């Protein structure tokens, strides 16, 4: 069972198996980080567009509630609570996007970029900008404007990638 779990983690790119040493947490090069964010941007854009087209009114209302929760002090009390609040937002987005494959791929990708998301969200001033960016996403969705939702999702990820890129350039580790 443990061997299978390690193989699964290795297949997802979360660990590397080093001969005669065993498993170690995988690290990402700057190029890999850029590539991950390009793919994440494309997938989130598809999810936002699909959500604007396919989500029920109840799902749209839940997405708004998840965004409003991000504005609350308890959501940002710790990095863990902030990641949980953002994950809840994305779970709703993926649930209503009408494309299970996009949801599966984005979930797997986000497993690889969790540490990078911590870096991005932990950057001073990033949370208010994140909330403003997600407000643009939700507003486009509420207007049932799939093209604008796609664009706003892509921009949100581009901005997160810029923050992570600056942090990595400053010498922070890119362990995943």
Structure description:
The protein has helices at residues 2-11, 30-54, 57-70, 79-95, 100-112, 114-122, 126-142, 146-169; strands at 15-18, 22-25. With 176 residues, it is mostly helical. The chain has a two-stranded antiparallel ribbon with strand order 1-2. The longest helix is centred in the first third of the chain and has 25 residues, at 30-54.
Structural class: mainly alpha
- Alpha carbon gyration radius: 17 Å
The sequence of SSEs as H and E is HEEHHHHHHH
Instruction: Give the overall shape, derived from the CA principal axes.
Output: globular
Major β-sheet annotation: 2 strands, antiparallel
Strand content: under 5%
Query: Which percent bin holds the helix content?
Result: over 70%
Q: What strand order characterises the main sheet?
A: 1-2
Give me a quick take on this structure.
The chain is mainly alpha-helical. Helices cover 73% and strands 5% of the residues.
Task: Give the tags.
176 residues, disordered C terminus, two-stranded antiparallel sheet, 73% helix, 5% strand
Helix and strand arrangement:
Elements: H1 2-11, E1 15-18, E2 22-25, H2 30-54, H3 57-70, H4 79-95, H5 100-112, H6 114-122, H7 126-142, H8 146-169
Antiparallel strand pairs: 1-2
């Amino acid at each position: 069972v443990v061997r299978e779990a390690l193989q699964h983690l290795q297949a997802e790119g979360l660990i590397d198996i080093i001969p005669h040493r065993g498993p170690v947490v995988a690290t990402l090069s700057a190029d890999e980080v850029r590539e991950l964010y390009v793919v994440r941007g494309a997938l989130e854009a598809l999810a936002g567009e699909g959500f604007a087209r396919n989500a029920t009114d109840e799902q749209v209302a839940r997405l708004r509630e998840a965004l409003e929760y991000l504005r609350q002090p308890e959501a940002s009390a710790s990095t863990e609570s902030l990641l949980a609040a953002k994950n809840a937002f994305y779970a709703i987005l993926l649930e209503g996007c009408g494309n299970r494959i996009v949801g599966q791929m984005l979930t797997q990708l986000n497993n690889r970029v969790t540490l990078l998301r911590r870096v991005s969200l932990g950057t001073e001033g990033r949370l208010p900008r994140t909330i403003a960016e997600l407000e643009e996403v939700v507003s486009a969705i509420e207007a049932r404007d799939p093209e604008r939702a796609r664009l706003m999702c892509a921009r949100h990820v581009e901005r997160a990638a810029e923050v992570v890129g600056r942090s990595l350039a400053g010498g922070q580790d890119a362990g995943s």
